[in-house]
Amino acid sequence: MKVGKRRKVNKQTRNRYIWAYIFILPQFIVFFGLSLYPIIMSYVYSFYDWTGIGPLNKFVGFSNYISVFKEEKFWNAFKNTFIYTAGFTMVSVSAALVLALILNNPKLKGIGIYRTIYFLPVVTTTAIIGIIMKNIFGNQGLINEALKIIGVIDQAVPWLINPVTAMIVLIIVGSWKEIGIIMIYWLTGLQMIPRELYEAAHIDGAGYWQTLRHITLPLLAPIGATIILLTTVSSMHVFDLVKTLTGGGPYYSTETLELYIYRFAFASDGISQVGYASTVGVILGLTVFIISLGLGWVVMRVNKSRADAGVQG
Amino acid sequence: MKKNLSLIVSLILLSALLLVGCQKEDGKTGETDKDIVTLDLWNNIAAGRTYFPILIEEFEKNNSGIKIKLNNVNVESSEAEYQAAISDNNLPDMFTTDAYTINEFVELGLVHELNDLFPEKVREEYTDGVFDVGNTMVGDDVYLFPIYKGGTYMMFYNKEVYEELGIETVPKTWEEVMTVGKEIYEKSGGASHGLLFGGQSGWLVNGVVQLMATEASPEAGYDYANGEYNFATVGHVETMEFFKNLLDNNALSPLSLENDSTVARELFTSGKAAFLLDGNWTGQLLHESEFENWGVVPLPTKDANGKQYGEFRLGSNDGMYVSKETKNWNEVKIFMEFLRENIYGEILKDGEPLIAKDSAAIKVELPFEEVNDIADIFLNMSIRVPNPIVLNPHTQEVRTEFLKNAPDESIGSVTMGYLTGQVKDLKGTLQKYTDDYNAEFTKAIDGNEHVTKEDYKFPNWVPYQSYTEENYKELNR
Prior knowledge:
The structure holds two protein chains of two kinds.
Chain A: H1 11-45, H2 63-70, H3 72-103, H4 111-123, H5 126-136, H6 142-149, H7 163-192, H8 195-203, H9 208-235, H10 240-245, H11 257-265, H12 274-312
Helix pairs in contact in A: 1-12, 2-12, 3-7, 3-9, 4-7, 7-9, 9-12, 11-12
Chain B: H1 2-32, E1 37-43, H2 48-62, E2 66-72, H3 78-87, E3 94-95, H4 102-107, H5 120-123, E4 137-138, E5 141-142, E6 145-146, E7 153-158, H6 159-165, H7 174-187, E8 193-197, H8 202-216, E9 221-223, E10 228-230, H9 234-248, H10 261-269, E11 273-279, H11 282-288, E12 294-297, E13 310-311, E14 319-322, H12 329-350, H13 370-381, E15 382-383, H14 388-391, H15 395-405, H16 411-419, H17 426-446, H18 469-474
Parallel strand pairs in B: 1-2, 1-3, 8-11, 13-15
Antiparallel strand pairs in B: 3-14, 4-5, 6-14, 7-11, 7-12, 9-10
Helix pairs in contact in B: 2-12, 8-9, 8-16, 9-16, 15-17
């Protein structure tokens, strides 16, 4: 054994390495400058009493963290974020699956048109959707007027003024906005299932519901777990829809963590507290990280159990 | 490989050369304009979008060597823009903003003093109180170029709704607002309501409720005699209950609960309500939107002879700052001198009466007659109140400190919570808010060795009367 002897790298391999690093460099700069640096700095700010301007000179240790955990409205925003995330994930993932199953039928005419229609909200600006939906669900909005015309209600339903209905509207609108992209994920999963399995089941006399239950859904489980992971994590960052549709109201009942952070970082009616807002940002980041780890573990388990089942089968 | 590398390097060098060439070309173009100095002006005053372009055009006509680059900043996002500009040490030469207070700007050394522009003789042309410490001055220096003299809230009424429904009484008292509001709802078959305001604009609800609360409780908000905050006054509770009664009796439009002041103004002009609660600038905005059939009266009072008052105070957004880092101070001064002589007339012509200068001396044709009504309401409503900073500048440090840690609540949010049924125990909520607020206030005072609780007490303050220089002297501090 020749300890300490360096492996000889020929000229061609060295040049390849150099070129590889040259190509990686822009991505590295962008990642460090636009992702890693802000994350690191938000951790730094969270230990300072800082308004967002002037020097960082008032180190307060864990004081911001203690204040955050004592703050009633932080926990309210935390709770709201989880309610929204749970509602959004359940509604959007299940509705998108139903749509994907319908649109995966090759016999259905105009599939391309339907897919485009369902995908349109995804590419529409969220803030615009929020403003339009605010008018639709408003006291004298389209929904109330339509319900009055067909005789379902006499008095307008305060959709955005009642805390329960306001959250429901938020979840429904948020789900409707994202359903197109989740449907694409499901369609990808559906198209990965070999057609031979369906043909064999058909020969064995299985109907639609039986193939759905025993072939489609079990084989979709791995991608389903990934979809739930992605949907959960992205929905925890909801901001623009809440800002434009409910403004976090009535009386903070739909205020999510992102909106709470915004309110403190860019206060329009008080002194900005960027240090405090960064603390909440760090807590939100860590929460999302822990949830991602948990769901990631579930994805891994599902994939492993499917692989084991495949080997045994 | 070597050939490829050489080719790529040559291409990069060639591109770089071309880019440098382009830059030189630009430089040559710039050289022909080398005598022109460009000043950046960031504006976030709504009406400034109208009068600044007129003023700039006139200024540039007579000052060919100076160009003013106007950037109208979005009010909603200006906080973030200013944070970024300050962090990059890149503030514009001149700017208007409400993102930070005058004391914060001065404390951080971000703004230029404007003493040369406002010598004692010039200051005499302005409304009393404009050059008070904390308004445009910090210590002995002027830092804010005064454009307005603050603002207040009032009630606008839609004459079209009145004519259409055959109603004649313009309400002055709470009782009349209720009676007329019910009448409007009934006569219009629910298509119109009496009162409307932009409840989603927290600052508006805060300001209106605070002003109305001072009728029953002059100590509402801040008790100048005892030096404590008080948000649990009879005035606050009664005002909030008044709005709730209006809502329950269809005299207040439920649209107030889900819209901000901008949307509420549009709903008002479209006849969804007969009365609109909003700020003094609304007159100019209504005129600009070509809606002319309106009038304006003070906020309604509980008693026919009831009095309300608001603090005469200028905020950052009532004037203009100059960046301390400006490289063109001489040119900025020339533009500022031009503004000092011309801006106030242009604002009056635009329909905003609350200019910082004494408006009697400026002869211009007013665009609509209600301009004078708005000015009168402001004069009757706004008074100079005791300001602890006048006697002890260190009190500003306490203010900054405790406002950062003050409860995450406001009179406006409690009012909206009460109206939407979220706040059940109104008195209890207001008392808790007051107690928490005072606890942080006391903590901030205790943490500052230069300030005591006595600095905040003004026992000789008489409610509803302006606090004068003599009153400060009487305290013998």
